[in-house]
Prior knowledge:
The chain has 431 residues and is mainly beta. The protein has strands spanning 10-13, 22-23, 33-35, 38-39, 45-47, 60-62, 72-78, 81-86, 92-95, 106-109, 119-123, 130-135, 141-144, 153-158, 167-169, 186-187, 224-229, 236-239, 244-246, 252-253, 256-257, 259-263, 278-282, 288-295, 298-311, 314-327, 333-334, 339-340, 345-346, 354-355, 360-370. The strands form 8 sheets. A 7-stranded antiparallel β-sheet has the order 3-7-8-11-12-15-4, with no helix packed on it. The protein has a 6-stranded antiparallel β-sheet with strand order 1-17-18-19-22-28, with no helix packed on it. It is elongated, with a radius of gyration of 25 Å. It starts with 9 loop residues before the first strand and ends in a 61-residue tail after the last strand.
Amino acid sequence: MKCPVAPRRSVLLAVAALAVMVPATAAHAADGFTSTMVNQANGNCADVPGGAGTSGLQLVQWSCNSGTNQSFTFTPVSGDVYTIGTVTAGDCLDISGASDSDNAAVIQYGCHSGTNQQFHLKPVSGASNTFTVVSVSSGKCVAPSGDSTVNNTALVQLPCSGAASRAWQIAGFGGGGGTTPPPSGYQGIPNLNPNACHNSGLPRAYGTNFQTPNDPYGQGFQNTTALGWDGNYWPVFSYLSGSFFARGVNSTYNGLCGGMYSFSAYNYGGAPGRQSVQWTEDNGYLPAMKTSRTSGNVGITIKNFADKETVNGNSFMLVYTRVSVTDNGSAAVTVPPGGSGPNLVRLTSSALDTVQPGQTSNHDFVVAVDNFGNGRRCPPGRCCRAVRRTTTPPTTTWPRTGIRGWPSSTRSACPTPRCPTPATWPIRAPR
């Protein structure tokens, strides 16, 4: 069974700052603010149990106690629509699984742009700062399960009604202490976690003037660009050496959230000399950065490009890398590609490490690096493992090659979710 492929709009970025100030046409909503949510049927507060930071934790109602686990940040989206953040975890209120069913859990989850994390605040007539909290995705209201008045009752979504259990007093609404809206006509930084690791102890990974690592093989040079895709949250920094740094990977590198991916073939025969490396944008259906150098009789190229794929209904950005080694001498050489980095998957056999005179070996890799803000964990390495080719790839110049499907005889089993992986490197042809 083929995995669905989303329309491709790859972008090669000169600057990787996510939250650039751009013109906006929509009217700005009311100011952001922080407040408790007090249920009008029983006087209890919406509560993150124990103030825990666990992703997916279901909220409850509990006697109001002024704890930070009963405090929420309301960030305007548009009109009367807000995201509601948990102060203790920095996550967002979320209708679990984007369900539209009655009694679906109200949980805290990493913030993303889904409508299951957006809520209308609908005023209740005759009551000050009192609202029904209505999920944009389902049209249902946040309420205690079974309309219970008991402490520790889980919060769920139920059909909206005039019942007091559906109404919440949000005292901070319009009452000062909110954030200042951005200047008219501009869009500010989105409501994101500080980094893909959801770890406030690590540096912020978006906006302007955020920290970035240097090229691990750069020898003091810092030639950097970025690879990405229209709509991605964490563009990938790409370096002269063919290495790249993925901010959307839940890992750490030199004290920063993200994963560094490198290919030691770049240093075959010793570190390159000055002005001996070419770094260009390769031609083809998708733009790719190409690093080229020679070491004695061995030619080495490293190409990286980003591709958007859909896995089980969720979008992810994958970075493909090809390390090509050409033997221009008279004797065989052994040059392993040396790929390293979290969940990086090698798609080709190590038997290609030895290259015969006049031949070229192509070593292919892939890794999932971004989830487009859908809150889903990137597919693990075992689910991005490609099929082993049973036929010789076509000789068409990379990366123009492509295929719409791939032969059933060459598919390999992969536990759900299955990662779409081209049998003919590196991408499917334009449709």
